[in-house]
Amino acid sequence: xxxxxxxxxxxxxxxxxxxxxxxxxxxxxxxxxxxxxxxxxxxxxxxxxxxxxxxxxxxxxxxxxxxxxxxxxxxxxxxxxxxxxxxxxxxxxxxxxxxxxxxxxxxxxxxxxxxxxxxxxxxxxxxxxxxxxxxxxxxxxxxxxxxxxxxxxxxxxxxxxxxxxxxxxxxxxxxxxxxxxxxxxxxxxxxxxxxxxxxxxxxxxxxxxxxxxxxxxxxxxxxxxxxxxxxxxxxxxxxxxxxxxxxxxxxxxxxxxxxxxxxxxxxxxxxxxxxxxxxxxxxxxxxxxxxxxxxxxxxxxxxxxxxxxxxxxxxxxxxxxxxxxxxxxxxxxxxxxxxxxxxxxxxxxxxxxxxxxxxxxxxxxxxxxxxxxxxxxxxxxxxxxxxxxxxxxxxxxxxxxxxxxxxxxxxxxxx
Length: 415
Hints:
Elements: H1 2-21, H2 23-59, E1 65-69, H3 81-85, H4 92-101, E2 105-121, E3 124-134, H5 138-141, E4 146-149, H6 154-159, E5 163-166, H7 168-175, E6 184-187, E7 190-198, E8 213-217, H8 218-221, E9 235-240, H9 246-260, E10 272-275, H10 276-319, H11 321-329, H12 334-370, H13 379-405, H14 409-414
Parallel strand pairs: 3-8, 5-7
Antiparallel strand pairs: 1-9, 1-10, 2-3, 2-6, 2-9, 4-7, 5-8, 6-7
């Protein structure tokens, strides 16, 4: 074990000497490794950062939640849109029937929404707000956090009381730091009392935020517009119980919907059951293609860098042939010479890899501070960069090291 550590130490010293004595030659050879590692890890870092941000947005929908809607979220190439156009929208009748029949659900909620609404309070107004209306189970199908106030009471939801819950941005725009709870605002011409404010979530990459939303009870919305009309995007949200798998909940929901819609065996569904795994799978496919492109582009640079490292090692063997002869005449085994040059090649590649990782890290800091977009260099990508450097070092250094280990000591000393 001590010999291995000594070999590694000597190899790094030889590599450093090579770098110091032949700065330009070594730097040009390391450039390919540096650029290759930089491209691959930069692509992977960007992809992982974006994927994690989008995935956190998708996760807000709930991993055990299903959405009964007219249109599917994912379309295939031969998408039969004419079939979906004639489908009925999810209705209050569907919702009421599911609420009574679903045994595996912790909550079944009917939701409608309309966008680009103007919300007013005295002389203040906020444009571009989304107005959402939902049945009482909304707090069971979504994870709600409040910065102030509370959720609707059962009696408020049942009676359709003129109450609402505001997103943080809406509250800031209307009240400018004043206490919003208890005050009356105007929504679609109706006066409603603010009973709560959602906790600020901030912008995400899919717009899955409550900050610009206004939530009212469904029974209040019935007096304001037609909640069954498709222009208000009706949907039924079903969240399964924690101890039951999503597949079981989906199976029960599909069977109940077919029964409610009175579909015959063999007849196609006239509804879509959407879930977050559909989006996650599409993200994996999309970002997988980007990663492959990163491997291909970076791979060419690494290939060039690998040839450069192999060239340096052949030159290094040539320059130290007499030293190799002396080492072998003093009893050094072939594997000792072999490992010595392999470790040196690996050390050079690790140097190039570390330079590449350093450039990526500097890039993440610049983007984070200049563009105000948090980019993270994950440990897995650091490990990948070092791992690729080690593999390239082993491959590029093996043949020169093998040639060095096979030298005849007498001929080597003579040279």
